Amino acid sequence: MKQTRSLAILFASAAVLLGTAGARAQDASQPVVEPETLVALNRMGAALQALTDFSLEAETTRESVLETGQKLQYGGTLQIVAHRPDRFRISVRSDTQNRDYYYDGKTLTVVAPTLKYYAQRKAPPTIRQVLAAVQDKYGIDLPLADLFEWGTDPAQRKALESGYTVRPAMIDGRACVQYAFRQPHVDWQVWIAASEPALPCKLVITNRDDPSLPQYSAVMKWQVGTAPTPDAFAFKPPAGFSKIALADNAIGGGK
């Protein structure tokens, strides 16, 4: 991730990349992780790990598969405000569920704003530990949680079965480069900013365990370098909200 290419070279190579896409598809029996894709992931990891204070807004799309095999698509938004190493606020809004997650360095709060419920538990002292705890203990899979972790675990790279550069692309007015990867059970694509900082512009994840291949996608906008106030991470229950226990699978389903 620490090496870069100039935009001129990237866009000049577009025709070559398009021309080799078919050859790659025909040569799928011999998957390979191209070295330049690891360089790109290293750049992205370094950019993510360099962030201390940041906010992120993402437009998300999730596919759900019916028993008939028909796929339905649901839109949503995701907002993350974070201060490393020990604070975040994550707000998820979608057609099917709304959730807020507050972590102030001491306490994790999970809020269901539509249902007017919230739950709190004592939390470990770092974001990394909290992310592991909420998944293992409470079955909470926080959206885009890998953004906090990418570049810190060598196992992430070892899991890759194939990886290649697709082509340059424009995502929401930003020059990016598209990469495609495969690992057990999952295909994923990431569009990484061509200029520094090399933050991800878009992510698409395909679940290969389901024959219908449902996808999750997020188009991301970043703001970096502005320190949020401590109040941004503190939850104050509004009038009418009820406190409940944080159990396995967190606060129920639905809204």
Question: Could you name the ranges where pLDDT drops below 50 across 5 or more consecutive residues?
Answer: 1-26
Assign the structural class, choosing from mainly alpha, mainly beta, alpha/beta, alpha+beta, or little secondary structure.
alpha+beta
The CATH architecture designation is: Clam
Q: Approximately how much beta-strand content do the residues carry? A: 35-45%
Give the neighbour order of strands across the main sheet.
7-8-9-10-11-1-2-3-4-5-6-12
- The number of distinct structural domains comes to 1
Helix run count: 6
Please state the overall shape, judged from the principal axes of the Cα atoms: globular
Main sheet: strands, sense, barrel: 12 strands, mixed
Task: Describe this entry's structure for a reader.
With 255 residues, the protein is of the alpha+beta class. The protein has a single domain (7-243), classed as outer membrane lipoprotein receptor (LolB), chain A (Clam), CATH 2.50.20.10. The chain has 6 helices and 12 strands. It has helices at residues 7-12, 14-26, 35-49, 127-138, 146-149, 155-158, and strands at 53-65, 71-83, 87-94, 98-103, 107-112, 117-122, 162-171, 174-183, 186-193, 200-207, 215-224, 242-243. Strands 7-8-9-10-11-1-2-3-4-5-6-12 form a 12-stranded mixed β-sheet.
Question: Topology, pairings included?
Answer:
Blueprint: H1 7-12, H2 14-26, H3 35-49, E1 53-65, E2 71-83, E3 87-94, E4 98-103, E5 107-112, E6 117-122, H4 127-138, H5 146-149, H6 155-158, E7 162-171, E8 174-183, E9 186-193, E10 200-207, E11 215-224, E12 242-243
